[in-house]
């Protein structure tokens, strides 16, 4: 195992730019300024040895070693950080790092390039290089602090680090000697690196499929972060059910605020906060209407913790009490959801596609006694989406990874059956306009599911008791 450099930040960060009159050797690491939290500067966020909340420097090193071990000797992996996105003019969105880049490095700044070169057959036979923005007091006054080149080595454990402006010459030399280059960089969308890949003299292969295989099974630390997000988010959603809401935007604001003040980094995505028939729109996010008595509220929301997300959907009556029709439709979906959550165990030998087929048949079996003229041939008219997807650092994690793969311990998925009944005379009148979705985030274990969002109540009796 590689010896980690992150032993003494007070010593290792002494090269940071501090000003002309302060001897580096006398400066505490806690007095230095970086673009993202460190334990020394933000002990309320990070524990000793962590690069990001819950994830240690050692785990990041192990991830890079795993990538290198998946590559052929003499090959190179090149990743580019996400660019800052602008809403308009000088108004920018909150920065979100490219997921694979973040998973390998923990680096959460833009205008950076990471390079991993496989130099030999052993696990530790690789070189990790970074090209990043150097410290610059004038620019940092306007745009905030930066980590800097020295921190790329001393904190983030790069073997070699250079200013980003050196990437053209240095990376060109590395690429020209490579036997194979793993990358997802598209020349047309990369002003800084596009010229290196447009007229290349080296062979390339997509990196994302290799990364998906590495990322799809979550480590205990990753699961712990997702459980933290699920616990906080579940409690917030349960607390939302206790209150009488009149406007969608008020409930939206409550969720975002409560996720944050209770320990999440913030919301994991724009929530669905839909009243009545609007719950039939799967990704309804405008959230600008009002709730009416006799309708359902459908919420699809979750918080993010330590760059890991949770994804929860709950449906409850505006009044807090189910009508007979609401109870029948809700219980039909809940019964299927319970069954499908129970299948999220390695011993069941199921894939998400297998569970989807069981979900569809289960909904048919539950809806027919309620008067629905429904079968496997038309259930997609009421249940148009898949029962689940992978989750992790992204809401739809590891895009492109097959839902046909048998679930194994460490896979994290959603289970979210739903029934969406339009105002159409093909369906029983008393259910028309109702949308019900019940979704939990689940980590697959050997013999039982580990529900990450269990604090969000979903039994009819529990929901109704919240208003008593």
Automatic annotation (TrEMBL):
Give me the reactions it catalyses. Release of any N-terminal amino acid, including proline, that is linked to proline, even from a dipeptide or tripeptide
Q: Which CDD domains match?
A: Prolidase
According to UniProt, the name of this protein is: Xaa-Pro aminopeptidase
Family statement drawn from the similarity comment of this UniProt entry: Belongs to the peptidase M24B family.
Enzyme Commission number(s) from the entry: 3.4.11.9
Q: Which Pfam families match?
A: AMP_N, Peptidase_M24
Per the record, what is one GO cellular component? mitochondrion
Q: What function does this protein fulfil?
A: Catalyzes the removal of a penultimate prolyl residue from the N-termini of peptides.
């Amino acid at each position: 195992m590689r010896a980690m450099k992150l032993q003494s930040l007070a010593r290792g960060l002494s090269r940071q730019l501090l000003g002309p009159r302060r001897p580096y050797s006398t400066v505490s690491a806690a007095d230095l300024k970086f673009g993202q939290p460190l334990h020394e500067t933000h002990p309320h966020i990070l524990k000793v040895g962590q690069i990001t909340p819950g994830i240690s420097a050692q785990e990041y090193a192990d991830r890079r070693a795993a990538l290198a071990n998946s590559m052929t000797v003499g090959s190179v992996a090149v990743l580019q950080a996400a660019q800052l996105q602008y809403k308009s003019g000088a108004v920018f969105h909150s920065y979100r790092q490219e997921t694979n880049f973040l998973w390998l490095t923990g680096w959460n700044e833009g205008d950076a390039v990471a390079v991993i070169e496989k130099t030999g057959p052993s696990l530790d036979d690789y070189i990790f290089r970074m090209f990043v923005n150097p410290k610059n007091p004038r620019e940092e006054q306007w745009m905030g602090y930066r980590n800097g080149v020295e921190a790329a080595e001393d904190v983030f454990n790069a073997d070699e680090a250079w200013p980003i402006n050196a990437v053209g010459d240095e990376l060109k030399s590395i690429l020209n000697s490579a036997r194979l280059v793993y990358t997802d960089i598209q020349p047309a969308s990369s002003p800084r690196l596009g010229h290196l890949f447009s007229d290349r003299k080296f062979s390339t292969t997509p990196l994302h499929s290799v990364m998906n295989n590495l990322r799809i099974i979550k480590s205990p630390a990753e699961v712990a972060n997702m459980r933290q997000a699920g616990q906080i988010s579940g409690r917030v959603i349960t607390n939302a059910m206790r209150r009488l809401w009149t406007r969608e935007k008020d409930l939206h604001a409550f969720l975002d605020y409560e996720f944050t003040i209770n320990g999440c980094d913030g919301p994991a995505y724009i929530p669905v906060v839909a009243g009545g028939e609007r719950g039939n729109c799967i990704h309804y996010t405008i959230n600008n209407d009002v709730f009416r008595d006799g309708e359902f509220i459908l919420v699809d929301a979750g918080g993010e913790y330590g760059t890991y997300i949770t994804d929860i959907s709950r449906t409850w009556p505006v009044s807090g009490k189910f009508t007979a029709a609401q109870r029948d439709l809700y219980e039909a979906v809940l019964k299927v959801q319970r069954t499908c959550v129970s299948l999220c165990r390695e011993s069941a030998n199921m894939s998400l596609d297998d569970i989807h087929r069981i979900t569809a048949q289960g909904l048919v079996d539950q809806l027919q006694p309620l008067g629905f003229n429904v079968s496997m041939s038309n259930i997609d008219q009421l249940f148009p989406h898949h029962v689940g997807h992978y989750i992790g650092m992204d809401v739809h994690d590891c895009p492109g990874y097959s839902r046909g793969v048998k679930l194994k311990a460490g896979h994290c998925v959603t289970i979210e059956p739903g029934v969406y009944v339009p105002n159409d005379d093909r369906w029983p009148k008393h259910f028309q306009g109702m949308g019900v979705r019940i979704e939990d985030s689940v980590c697959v274990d050997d013999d039982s599911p580990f529900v990450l969002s269990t604090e969000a109540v979903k039994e009819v009796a529990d929901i109704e008791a919240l208003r008593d």
